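FIELD: query
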Amino acid sequence: MARVEFENVAKDFAGPRRERIGAVRDLNLKVADGELLVIVGPSGCGKTTTLRLLAGLETPDRGVIRLDGASLEGVPPKDRDVAMMFQHHALLPHFTVFKNMAFGLMLRKYPRAEITARTQKAAEMLHLTGLLERKPEELSGGECQRVALGRALVRQPKVFLLDEPLSNLDAPMRLELRSEIAAVCRRTRATMIYVTHDQAEALALADRVAVMRDGAVEQVAAPLEVYQRPANRFVAGFIGAPPMNFFAGSVARQNGALLFRGEEDLAIPLESPGADCMGKAVILGLRAEHIAPWDAHEPACRVEAVLERVETTGSESLVYLSRGKIGFVARAPAAFSAGAGQSVAVRFQMEEAHFFDAATGAVVPRR
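FIELD: result
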């Protein structure tokens, strides 16, 4: 397969008033040989533009894109040896599944025997063997997406580019095809760059996750590292469902002990040595699983709140709480039962807390 490198890549588009809109800004990103990198971020953050720049469908205004160390500047799309799978499968309706999958090889005039062998192998990998003589109108949405993936696979390109390939499918089909894509990556040891706005999909699939916002990469790391050690408040809030809880406040010393003081008289002891936040406004971040029912036998960090509602997911419950104008969410066992408006006590597990600079959003390192 191949290595991919973006070095200081930028791409602007003209806005409705001829202003320049930065779709990609100073992008520096490396994808290792055989890696499945998932680019995740909100709509309009530059994910698809990044793929199109690599595929040659857009030309960068600045910077260099390299494939296996060689610059792609001036190389036409057909000569880049990348295969792109789009959000819409775009199958040819008058072709069978076999011909749709083999079409790229037929255009390149590969020998008939090699076309058949490659197509049959891809069909077996994607469980399409019994559907090769059908036409797209006879297939389900998930089967059409499999055919589109097979069309890319038979090319055996250096890099696979997948642009939100599952977004039009229902939830069960998304899970099924997600597993197929992961299996294909393992079997072929292919280099894949996968774009999605679904952070759960990114965490489930990726070797590494690149989180983008406003055309720039905020953090690139392994899925668990992005979740457990976000680089800034945006990453912390975007990655994870439900999103991380945030509380504005500051760190003060009282009677020799460190306290986080926030709105609505929130005062939470910090374990020594605590965070290096003295003298600055900070945001305390805490995930839902780190807010637990308070137990009299446990240490402090007791927080009184009012129950707003409970959402049951089957395996657990999401408990939505409020303390004055502050709202936050906690995870609880599926059997959790309480009525709206009821007063409850919870414990903030401050050993799992994150602190972010209130002005910049950057993470504040713990001492």
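FIELD: remark
The domain at 245-357 is CATH 2.40.50.140 (OB fold (Dihydrolipoamide Acetyltransferase, E2P)).
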